[in-house]
Amino acid sequence: MTPEAQNEDMQVLAGIDRAVHEPARLMILAYLSAVESADFLFLANQTGLTRGNLSSHMTRLEQAGYVSIKKEFVDRIPRTLLRITRQGKAALRSYRKNMMQVLKELPC
Amino acid sequence: MSGSEISQVRRRVRRAIDQDGLFEMTMGVIFLAVPLLVRLRLQSIAGVVAVVLVCVVLPVLRNRVTYPRVGYAKPREPAFRLILLFALGLGVVSLGVTALVLLVQGRVMSRPAWLALMPFATGLFIAGFHFLWGIRTRSLRHFILASVAAAGGALAVLLAAGSLDTGAGIFFLGFGTLELATGIVLLTRFLSHYPRPQGATDDA
Predict the structure, then answer these.
(1) What CATH number is given to the structural domain containing A45?
(2) Measured between CA atoms, how close is A19 to chain B, in angstroms?
(3) Do the chains contact at B1 and A96, CB–CB below 8 Å?
């Protein structure tokens, strides 16, 4: 591979979606991509994130339009349901593709 | 995220909900109710009882017991049409294996012989569902319950010596007790492992 071509691959890194790239957010999106919906407590238990941490990452993902948040009451107990949006799925796919491209060319 | 990683996450989600033992308890109650309803000549409502327990009572129990402790997640499940097709396919396979047994015995045209082997066919049918759930959750207990259901059906036929009522009674009482006991053990473990969180669980 020519240095120019390698440089082009590394350029992809600059375009990596930072909303997805952060490990905790990537973990949240990965879980949400595997389910139809999940609540706050389930994600906190599965990811091991603290409530405050999870809450701030959820807000960031919601602002990016990758996650939709719906609040409801079940047996008078509040439940916050999270769902990955179509935009979120596309962002996760594109992130995966970009990272694969970069990592494939990295010398070990 | 690769397909296999997503499958692993899906499996973890199913296992998180499946560990409460409530499904086994519900199935145990249904199986134990079948001989009782037949005895009371109320077998026609057995289906209604099963639907009410699975579709109404089980979700209510999960809302009160499971989700406040481990959280709620709705796994991506196949369409209802696929589940129905699987059940029909399993029914055909169970009856096919039963027909094969009768063919070997040379009694494939005998109605009493078919009726006597119904607990065997039912055991295979239930085993198929537990086997599928074992694959979907990778839980050893579902594979064990599948094996016991298949073997239990055959054993009930042998013990009943040709009587459908006795065979079905033995199978449903035996397997129902096992399912109920499994569910109670799992629920006890679940409740001690996941005490109900104090205060608010919803900080979002």
Answers:
(1) 1.10.10.10
(2) 16
(3) yes
Residue of B nearest to A93 (CA): B1
B72 interface with A at CB cutoff 8 Å: yes
pLDDT at residue B127 in the model: 95
Nearest CB to A41: which of B63, B74, B202?
B202
Domain residue limits at B15:
3-193
CB contact under 8 A, A31 and B9: yes
Give the residue numbers spanning the domain of A18: 3-99
The residue in chain A having the minimum alpha-carbon distance to the alpha carbon of residue B203 is A51
Q: Does B201 touch chain A (CB under 8 A)?
A: yes
pLDDT by residue (tens digit) across B36-75? Answer: 888 888 878 888 888 899 889 998 999 889 988 889 988 7
Domain assignment present for B36: yes
Measured between beta carbons, which residues in chain A are less than 8 angstroms from residue B6? 30, 33-34
Closest chain A residue to B11 measured between Cα atoms? A34
Mean pLDDT of chain A: 85
Alpha-carbon distance values, A11 to A4, A5, A106 (Å): 10, 10, 13
Tell me the mean pLDDT per 10 residues along chain A, length 108.
59 79 91 90 90 93 94 83 94 88 74
Residue of B nearest to A41 (CA): B71
Determine, yes or no, domain membership for B117.
Answer: yes
Its ipTM equals 0.77
Domain count for chain A: 1
